[in-house]
Amino acid sequence: MKSPKTTPAKKTAASNERFTVVGLGEMLWDLLPSGKQLGGAPANFAYMTALLGDHALVASRVGKDRLGNAAARRLTRLGLPATFLQVDADRTTGTVNVTVDAEGQPKFEIMEKVAWDFFEWTPQWRELAAKADAVCFGSLAQRSAQSRATILAFLEAVRPGTLRIFDVNLRQAFFNKDVLSESASRADIMKLNDDEIMRVTELLGGTARDQQSAAQWILKEYGLKLVCVTRGGQGSLLVTAKATDEHPGHPVKVQDTVGAGDAFTAALVHKYLRKAPLRAMNAAANRMGSWVASQVGATPPADPKVILEFHDSNEEGTAA
User: Fold this and answer.
1) Digit-coded pLDDT (tens) for 111-124
2) Which helix or strand (DSSP H or E) is residue 57 part of?
3) Which residues contact 226 (CB under 8 A, 6 or more apart)?
4) Angle at the Cα of 44 (from 139 to 237), degrees rounded to 5?
5) DSSP-assigned beta bridge partners for residue 88
6) SS3 for 83?
7) pLDDT value of residue 46
């Protein structure tokens, strides 16, 4: 079960300051049919966070090799500092073979025992944890004992009130009950997709008749503030202790869905940090997720019109 809630971080919704938001986890190259693209949920999440106006940072690890150097350069070109990118002299930079089906859905073959499986808990990362307003972490980067221990140490080192987002990512066989349960117990927000919600609920020992009751069970069991279930082109479900909101999604011509979920998470976190109503969070997150799905790749160039619409979105609705 979850430890008692702590007091909120110093920044408030009324503050005009930028929040410091960390994407913590795997750094890799997605080897797509169209060519290689920098990938991994943390980088995708951080890129979209930066587009929306917050101070985004990636904490990951690459090899001391050509792809590692290219990853650092690519981060910089995306407007993300490579300051917290660890370099491993012994292991290669992570890669993923990605194929995309006729409906734009990706399938992944993730290489093992690569640099991001060997995170080190360093003074630099401890300092980063201490200044973060929010940190988003997943299950995939916890497939190795060393990286899992480092991620948990990072979460323990954040300030009271720092928002912790657990983005479930059930890839291949790289997850288990302990990782899911321990991560949920350290999170404030948990995000799953519609293929994961019932499976995760069962793995954690719960029973539910549908997605909403499953989300409510997870919320209560782990003392979470928000559970989010994404449904691809069919929108999403948000559940808090006080309210539930469903969004039907935005119909778009899908190019590929790589990174769409990460864009959704970034938008959700941006609105949550500013205490937006639940309905506004859901609408804004779906807007950004659908936009990325309509583009090629996870980090499309900024579209000023889309960003403006995001910030001008209606914030009426039920408070989270």
Assistant:
1) 999 999 999 999 99
2) strand 55-63
3) 188, 189, 190, 219, 238, 239, 240, 272, 320
4) 65
5) 63
6) coil
7) 97
CA 197 to CA 229: how far, in whole Å? 7
Residue pLDDT, tens place only, 76-92: 999 999 999 999 999 99
**What does the chain come to in residues?**
320
Quickly state the pLDDT bin for 314 (edges 50, 70, 90).
low
Tell me which fold the domain 20-308 belongs to: UDP-N-acetylmuramoyl-L-alanine:D-glutamate ligase (3.40.1190)
Do residues 115 and 68 make contact, with C-beta atoms less than 8 angstroms apart? yes
Write out the DSSP string of 205-233: T---SSHHHHHHHHHHHHT-SEEEEE-GG
Residues 6 or more apart in contact with residue 191 via CB below 8 angstroms: 165, 166, 167, 168, 227, 228, 229, 230, 261, 264, 265, 268
Q: What residues have CB less than 8 Å from 167, skipping those under 6 apart?
A: 41, 45, 136, 137, 138, 139, 191, 261, 262, 265
Joined tokens for residue 198: 């019932």
145 phi and psi, to 5 degrees? -60, -40
Look up the pTM and report it: 0.89
Distance CA 155, CA 184 (A): 12
